[in-house]
Amino acid sequence: MDFGQDVRILAYADDIYLFVAATGKQNIKKFAESALNKLQEWSLSAKVQFAHEKTQLIPFGKNGRHKHPPYCSFNGKAIKLARQLKILGVVLDDYLNGNPHIQYVGEKVLKILNRLTIARTRRGLSGRVLKLLYKRTLERILVYAAPAWWTGTVKQTTKINSIQRQILLAVTGAFRTTSTAALQIISGIEPADLVCEMETALYRIKHSLPNPNFLGTQLESGQAERYSPSWRHPSSINPATWDLNSPEFSLGIFTDVSKINGQVGAAFSIFDPAHSGDLQFRLDNHCSVFQAELMAIKQALLWKKAQRPSTHCHLFTDSMSSLKALQKFKPNNNLLEEIQDLLDGSISLHWVKAHIGVVGNETADKAAKEASDRPTIDIHLGIPERSIKSHIRNLLLREWQDRWNKRDAKGRYTFCIFPTVSTKICIDNHLLSQMVTNHGLCPHYLKRFQLRACNCRCGEDQDDGIQHYLFWCPLLSSERSLIRPGMSIQQILQDKNKTREAKSNLNYLFSHQQDIFEEVS
Asked: In what residue span(s) does the RNase H type-1 domain sit (predicted)?
């Protein structure tokens, strides 16, 4: 059906979405009702019915919500006006600011988190498992379709980090007064707003949208590797078969690649009574080793087709990932599809283990290293998606580090222990969380938040923080055998026995607080 230039239709399962772009309420009503009439005529011919009572209209204004929104009718019935509408799991509001969607996914995530927290208490679910579940499921729910609703406003950033904060508290078991910045560091979980920025940037690059950037850093999208479906008939698809054998051959080709100092080279060596030698070629520096392995195989097959079309050839490679990828019926990679098209009954593929003294493999390896030193690029390939993701992820970590380095940022006590951000950190014990945040059961914390006016009975330290009880307090000297004054918190965390002793000391402090703390009048 032709609805006109400014009318688009989106159908998904049994839902139909009609989009109308126009200036002025009368034009909107005119275009919308014209399209709806065409849909009604189609429904009669197709013998289907629309649920008019479920049909909704939501207007999006150029400058926000319409004070006097347009009204339309469908089949003689007025369409109900809505301020919010869920489309494929995304809640769109008439302001298009994304806040209702964040509220919606936040409630969904926290409902799941409550159940996981119960499982942690009753079933022994560790904080590390909670972190894994967050990264694999809850974070995906939280940032789902971020390019459609994420704008990076202060309100959005505050709201989404507030939702993430509840998860961080569950993972670490830290006190609720601990800053979100410190919780992100000790859990090793990236700020949710930066993940949304990353998802948006990746989407813009993948779909060739203009001006892709990550927090102001311009990203190069023109050279990205893109897959163009070849629409091959299923009967013509030729998934590869390979084995681990090393048979005798009259024509053998060995392929290998090299990536040294950021330069990528590929080569194949030919073993044939009539002709022996190698062919080398250098690829773009941004190419991955996987891309280079595939290109080496492709070039070897092209040489074989041109020079020995009727001779049976045994092709050897040490890249098992390439061979397994060639086995896929739908690899969704143009280079893999081109190699599959080159394969026929005159070619046998074999995997050979690298660097075990196989002459052909060693010869190809030497040729590939020489190829990486060639002065010019011989073959140009697009930047692989994995490299783009890695680059944007490095930008995310750099931005996270810049935030953590700011002197006015919260969590400066934790900064002295963990000055560098890392996703490998995970403090998932409530006692250790007190140790690395100084938010715990000690006079310093209790006085700071006006919970209790008390001091340590030993009277040796005016601060009376967590470190006082870990290293110096004489009232806990009987509990201290491995931990000594002058040690750092990092040294304790790096030693399992010292970590166990630190937890024991803090547990003792909790159970004997009446004997250790004295009230201040």
From this structure: 247-373
Three-state DSSP state, 312: coil
Beta strands at 517-519 and 454-456: parallel, antiparallel or unpaired: antiparallel
For residue 253, give both structure tokens.
Answer: 């080709």
| Number of domains observed in the structure of the chain | 4
Range of the domain at 333: 234-381
Domain closes at, from 346, 361, 381: 381
CA distance 506 to 212: 49
Separation of alpha carbons 520 and 350, rounded Å: 80
Supply the DSSP string of 243-295, one letter for each residue: ES-----SSEEEEEEEEETTEEEEEEEEE-SS--EEEEEEE-TT--HHHHHHH
Neighbours of 176 (CB within 10 A): 9
* 106-120 pLDDT tens trace: 999 999 999 998 887
pLDDT tens figures, 169-228: 999 999 999 999 999 999 999 999 999 999 999 999 888 888 788 888 887 766 788 888
* Cα–Cα distance for residue pair 480/34, rounded to 1 Å: 82
